[in-house]
C-alpha cells in the first residue's frame, strides 16, 4: 500500500468512525482489546491497516487515563488557587483588623503620652535652669570667697610688714586679715558641698522624668544618687573640718591681736619695747619676756625670720586666691553654665524629638 493510499484509507476510516462512534466508544475500543479486535474483524483490516488506524485514532482520541490525570491536575490547581486566595483574603482581613486595633489604641493613649512628654520636657528644662542658678550663685560666692581670701592675704602681709613701724595699725591689719581668712576658707568649702549636694538632688529628680525600663532601674538610680551625696559629704567633710579648725585658730589669733591693740594703748612703754625688740634686739631679758608674754601669737612677738616665713606663707595663699578669683570670674563672665545642666537640656531635646515624631504619626493617622 503506497503512502497516498495509506493516507486516504486512514482519513476515510477515521472520518467514518468519528461520524458513527462517540468519543467514549472510541476510547473504549482503544483501551479494550476485545472491542478493538471486533472492529478490526468487522472492517476486514489487514495488520498494516490496523496499525495505521490505531495510531491515527490515538492521536485524535485522548487517552482516558491521561485525560483523567490532566483533569485532576487542573482541578488541583484550581483548588490551590482558590485556597491561596482564601488564605490571602483571610490574612488581609486579619492584618486590617490588627492595624485598626493598633490605630485605635494609639489614638486613645496619644493625648496622655503627649501631655506627659510635654510635662517632662518642661520640668527637665526647669531643673536645668535650677542647676545653672545654683551653680551661678555658688560661683559668685566662690568669687567673693576668693576675693576675701586675697584681701586677707594682703592684710596679713601688711600687718607683718608694718609691725616694726606701727604696732597698733599692724595689729589691726592682722586681726582683720585673720578674720577674713577664716570666713573665706569656710565659705569656699561649704559652697562646694552645697553645690554638689544640690546638683545630685536635682539630677535624682530629673531621673524620675526620663523613660526607664523597670522599677529596679529606678531603685538603682535612687541608690546611686544617695551614694553620690554620701561620697560628696565624705570627701569634703575632712576639708570642712580642716577649714573650720584653721578658722578657729585664725579667730583665736584675731582675738590675740585685738587684745594686743588694747594693751598697746594701755601700756605704750610695753609697745615701745616690742618695737625695739623687732628692730634693734637691744632689750633686756626681762623686757623680752614681758613682750613675748603680752604679745605672744602676734607679729609684735615674732622674730625677723618668723615674720619673713609668715609673709611668704601669706603670699603663697594670696597667689592661689588670685588664680582662683581669675578663673571663677572668667567662668562667671562666660555665663557660668554647669555641665550637668547641659546634659539635662540634651535629654530634654531628645524627648522633644520623640514628641515631634509622635505628633507626625498622629497627623498621618488622622489625615
Note the topology.
Layout: H1 3-20, H2 23-31, H3 33-43, H4 47-60, H5 64-161, H6 167-207, H7 215-266, H8 268-279, H9 285-295, H10 304-333, H11 339-366
Task: Provide structural commentary.
It is a single chain. The protein is 88% helix and 0% strand. The chain has two domains: 63 residues, no CATH class; 247 residues, no CATH class. It is mainly α. It starts with a helix and ends with a helix. About 2% of the residues have low confidence.
Summarize the structure.
The protein is built from eleven helices and no strands. It has helices spanning 3-20, 23-31, 33-43, 47-60, 64-161, 167-207, 215-266, 268-279, 285-295, 304-333, 339-366.
What characteristics describe this protein?
11 helices, 88% helix, mainly alpha, 2 domains
Number of strands: 0
Mean pLDDT: 77
The H/E string reads HHHHHHHHHHH
Task: Give the total of domains.
Answer: 2
State the end-to-end CA separation.
86 Å
The largest pleated sheet is described as: none
Amino acid at each position: 500500500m503506497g503512502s497516498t493510499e495509506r493516507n486516504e484509507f486512514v482519513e476515510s476510516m477515521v472520518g467514518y468512525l468519528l461520524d458513527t462512534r462517540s468519543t467514549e466508544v472510541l476510547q473504549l475500543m482503544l483501551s479494550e482489546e476485545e472491542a478493538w479486535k471486533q472492529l478490526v474483524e468487522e472492517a476486514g483490516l489487514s495488520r498494516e491497516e490496523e496499525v495505521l488506524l490505531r495510531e491515527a485514532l490515538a492521536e485524535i482520541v485522548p487517552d482516558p487515563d491521561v485525560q483523567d490525570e490532566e483533569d485532576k491536575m487542573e482541578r488541583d490547581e484550581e483548588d490551590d488557587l482558590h485556597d491561596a486566595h482564601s488564605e490571602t483574603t483571610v490574612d488581609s482581613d486579619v492584618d486590617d483588623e490588627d492595624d485598626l486595633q493598633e490605630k485605635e489604641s494609639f489614638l486613645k493613649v496619644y493625648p496622655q503620652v503627649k501631655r506627659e512628654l510635654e510635662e517632662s520636657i518642661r520640668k527637665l528644662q526647669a531643673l536645668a535652669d535650677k542647676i545653672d542658678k545654683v551653680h551661678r550663685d555658688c560661683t559668685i560666692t566662690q568669687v567673693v570667697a576668693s576675693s576675701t581670701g586675697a584681701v586677707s592675704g594682703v592684710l596679713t602681709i601688711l600687718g607683718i610688714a608694718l609691725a616694726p613701724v606701727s604696732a597698733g595699725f599692724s595689729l589691726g591689719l592682722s586681726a582683720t586679715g585673720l578674720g577674713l581668712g577664716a570666713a573665706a576658707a569656710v565659705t569656699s568649702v561649704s559652697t562646694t558641698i552645697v553645690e554638689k549636694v544640690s546638683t545630685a538632688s536635682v539630677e535624682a529628680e530629673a531621673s524620675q522624668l526620663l523613660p526607664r525600663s523597670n522599677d529596679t532601674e529606678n531603685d538603682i538610680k535612687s541608690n546611686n544618687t544617695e551614694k553620690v551625696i554620701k561620697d560628696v559629704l565624705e570627701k569634703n567633710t575632712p576639708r570642712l573640718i580642716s577649714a573650720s579648725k584653721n578658722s578657729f585658730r585664725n579667730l583665736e589669733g584675731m582675738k590675740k591681736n585685738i587684745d594686743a591693740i588694747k594693751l598697746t594703748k594701755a601700756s605704750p612703754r610695753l609697745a615701745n619695747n616690742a618695737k625695739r625688740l623687732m628692730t634693734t634686739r637691744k632689750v633686756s631679758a626681762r623686757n623680752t619676756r614681758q613682750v613675748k608674754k603680752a604679745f605672744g601669737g602676734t607679729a609684735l612677738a615674732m622674730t625677723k625670720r618668723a615674720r619673713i616665713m609668715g609673709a611668704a606663707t601669706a603670699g603663697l595663699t594670696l597667689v592661689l586666691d588670685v588664680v582662683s578669683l581669675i578663673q571663677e570670674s572668667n567662668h562667671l563672665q562666660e555665663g557660668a553654665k554647669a555641665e550637668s545642666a547641659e546634659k539635662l537640656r540634651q535629654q530634654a531635646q531628645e524627648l522633644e524629638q520623640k514628641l515631634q515624631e509622635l505628633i507626625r504619626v498622629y497627623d498621618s493617622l488622622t489625615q
